[in-house]
Give the backbone structure.
Amino acid sequence: MPDFKFLDEVFANHDQWESWSIARKFEDEMGKASKNRSEEFKGLHDELEARIARAERMRKENLAPQSTGAKGTANLAAFHAGQSPAAKAARQAEFDGAVRIYRSYIASQKMWMGTGGVSDPLNQTVTVAYDNDLAQELTRVEIIGGKLYMAKSKNPLDKQELVDTAKMASYHSGPGVAIYVMSKQRNLHIHSHVIGGYHHSSLLHGAPVFGAGELKVNQGTIELLTNKSGHYAPKRESLYCVLSMLQNKKVPLEFAIAEHCNESSESFPSVLAFMKKYYLDDDGRKELSKSMEQLMAEMEQQDTEWAAERAASGAPASSSYAQI
């Protein structure tokens, strides 16, 4: 498991964290009715409907292959011969699960799925929610043994549950991904994103944060971390802050990274690849230091040669290196 000295240095430097904090305010958004959301959802709804239809079609085809005619009978026989009951049940569960995830995503956006397609309910007003202190405890994450747990269960009788974003959603990345912010107390808070109803600013009542973006978590294990947030517009430094906190909490930094900057984005298969890109892992920092030393040596050599040439021509000696 990689461990990065740079992230340890970041974690220990409180002044650095404060200079990187994202202090944008959104008090005027709380409780405000959202605008008509149909345009923002039009393309996404069409895509989700197509995926739902495809998942259902695939499920039916895999469970009941075409059996019309001699060719169909042969196909049916081959299908049943090659599939155990357990394999068929697992396949059905997979496709049914895909349908449930997409339908739950539509529901999480406070939309309706009817015979006419996906739409905003008529006469429904969606307002932007801002969590109070009590609600913030329900979104807070605890990290124990490198795994992510929800700090509080919505049902007091339930045991502490591992974080799993399979039933959460983000408008940008779709089903299976949650939005998060990291508070100035270095706590993660996560929730589903609801356009016009629940934003990054909702999690901590519009307060300043050290990080914001998206998370994909599978049974307590992070699979993806991003800094995608239209509200806070975090820079790369927010990823450093979140990664340094996770490393300090012994979370394995073996997940993918997606960095968003203005209109561009770049994906990395691992934290190590992200750190190498910016010379922030130990090998990368050594490589950068070595390159800088080599550059300085070349400049000094060039300076010496220039000085010798000027001396040979009788011109006054000067130092190009000293001017740089």
About this structure: Confidence is low (pLDDT under 50) at residues 320-324. Residues 279 and 286 are 8 Å apart (CA to CA). The chain has three domains: 5-33+125-277, 38-119, 282-323.
